[in-house]
Amino acid sequence: MRSQIKLGRIFGIEIGLHYTWFFIALLIIFSLFQQFHAANQQWGDGAILVLSIATGVLFFGSLLLHELSHSLFAKSRGLPVREITLFALGGVSQIEKSPANATTEFWMAFVGPLSSACMGLICLGLRITAGPSSGPAYVMLSWLGYINLALAGFNMIPGYPLDGGRILRAAIWWKTGDAERSTRMAASVGQAVGGVFIALGIVQFFGGAGFGGLWIAFIGWFVLQAASESYGEVGLTQTLKDVTVADVMTRECQTVDGNLNLRLFVDETLLRTGNRCFVVLDNGGLAGIVTPHEVKKIDRARWPYTTLFDIMRPLEEIRTVTPETPLKAALEIMGRQDLNQLPVVSNHHMDGVLTRAGVLNYLHTRTELQA
User: Fold this and answer.
1) What is the distance between the alpha carbons of residues 294 and 254, in angstroms, rounded to a whole number?
2) Can you give the residue ranges of every domain in the chain?
C-alpha cells in the first residue's frame, strides 16, 4: 500500500498517509466528540472538540509508534524498510525483505503489540498526575490507555497477517523449519479468522449494532483478503522458483535515435507499433530508455521542440537486471520502485526488457498448462 501524502522521515523511514486515513480520522474525532460530550456536557462544545482532536492526534501517534517498533527492529536486523503508511485500518510497515529465520520473524511481530501495551500502561499510569477523574486530561489519558491495550490485544489475534498471525507463523516455522509451509498454515488460520469476523459483524449489524457491526465485518474482509494474498504469494514463489529473467523477458527492443522529436516519435513509432519501451541510441551506443510515462509529462505543444534525449531516463539512473537474475527478485525490484519495465543488461549490452505484461502472460500460460 503506497501513501499519497508524504509527511517526512523518522530514523530514515519515510512516513506517509493513504487517502483512506482521512476517513477514519474524521470518524474517530466525531466518535470521540460524541462520547466526551455525552459524559461531560459541562465542558462546552469548543473544549470537547479540541480535546477530541488532541486525543485523535495522540492516538494516531501511538499507531505510528507501533509501526515504528516493527520497522526499527527490522532495520536492526538488516532488513530495508521503504516507508510506513497510515491508512483506514491503522498502519503498515513496508519492509522490503522477509526475515531470514523464525526468531527474527517472532520478535519483529511481537514488538508491535508490546509497544502498544507499554503505551497503554504508561497512559493509565500518567492519570495519577492528571488531576481529578472528571477532568479532560484524565479522560483523554484513560481513553488512550485502554484503546492501546485493546489494540495490543487485537493484534495478538492469530490471523495472518496480523501480528499474532506472524507470531503463529514464526512458531510453526521454528517447529517445522519450513518457511513456506508455515506461511500457508498461518494464512489459512488468517482466512478462518477473517471469515469469523465477517460473520460476527453481520450478526451484530442485524442485531442492532449498526455501524459497529459493519466495521467488524470490514476488518474481517481486510484480514481475509490479506491472508488470501499471502497464501497465493507462497504458490507464486513455488511457481517462480527456478525461473530467470531470461525466460520471460522480451528480446526485441526497438531502438530509436535520441535526436528524434516527440511529435514524430509518437506519430511514427509509438502509436504505430504499440510498444511501451524504447531504447534510445546516441551515435550507435545505448543512452537510455523512453516509455509513454516520460512522454505524458511533456505538454503536447512542446512535442515538436523536445527530443528524446531531453526526456529519456539515462541508463546509469535506471535499475537494471541481468538475464540470470531470478524472476522473483526482479519482480520485487519492480514492485519496490513501481516500475512497469526493467531493462535487462549484460556486458554493457541491452539484451531485452522485462515487463509486467510479459510476466502476466507467462504466468497465465503456465497456469493453463498446469491445469
Assistant:
1) 17
2) 5-156, 177-239, 245-370
* Tens-place pLDDT, residues 215-266: 788 888 888 887 877 766 666 666 677 788 888 887 767 788 888 888 888 8
Q: 3-class DSSP state for residue 7?
A: strand
Asked if residue 269 lies in contact with residue 256, where contact means CB atoms within 8 angstroms, the answer is yes
Closest C-alpha to 6, from 21, 16, 14: 16
pLDDT in tens, 289-330: 888 888 888 888 898 889 888 888 887 777 778 888 888 778
Q: What is the pLDDT of residue 135?
A: 79
Q: What are the cell numbers at 350?
A: 541491452
* pLDDT at 110 (0 to 100): 94
Does domain 245-370 fall into CATH 3.10.580.10?
Answer: yes
* Strand, helix or coil for residue 219: helix
Q: How many CB atoms lie within 10 A of CB 281?
A: 16
Which residue type, as a one-letter code, is found at position 330? A
Cβ proximity of 313 and 258 under 8 Å? no
Please tell me which residue, 174 or 23, carries the higher pLDDT value: 174
| Nearest Cα residue to 344 out of 358, 360, 361, 365 | 358
Given CA atoms 190, 195, 198, 200 in this order, what sign does their dihedral have?
Answer: negative
Measure the CA–CA gap between 57 and 63, rounded to whole angstroms: 10
Q: For residue 183, give the amino acid letter.
A: T
* Residue in the block written with cell 472528571: 134
DSSP run (H or E) holding 32: helix 20-39
Q: At what angle do helices 211-239 and 179-204 cross, to 10 degrees?
A: 160
pLDDT value of residue 68 = 92
Please give the grid coordinates belonging to residue 112. 508491535
